[in-house]
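Why does residue order matter? Because the sequence determines the fold. Keep that principle in mind as you read this record.
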Amino acid sequence: MGSIDTDTSAPISIDGKPTATTTVPPFSYYANAQSEFKPPLIANSNAFLGDVFSSDRTTNPISAGFYRLAPGPELIYTYTYDEMKILLEGDMQISQLKDASGEEDVVKEEVEAKKGDTFFFPKGAVVRFRTREGGLAWYCGQRARDGA
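Structure:
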């Protein structure tokens, strides 16, 4: 993981006219993160999630990282924030539920996700994740670091 050190003074403009100068921190990067970053176990024996980067904002923070699900128990998660996710590897069966009971008759929508499929989970959504072979997804959520 690293950052690029560049000139961090950037003019702010309105209608193309400079109005002020602010200090912008350098961007950050994590080389080969998809294969090198190992998210920690968060549930059951097969659900792993870890923030790679997070903003330090107290208002409207944002965090992004990897979610790995190995074959085994399903994960039912109630979102307390908005999140977007893209499946990078493997497979996942992703279902939006009416409630957190996990019963089949509460399924509102179900998708057999494959590499490249992208999702938006609104705050309040109850989502069930399953996999046959295992899957890896990248996510970006409007929450503070480690707030999942």
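The chain has a mean pLDDT of 88.
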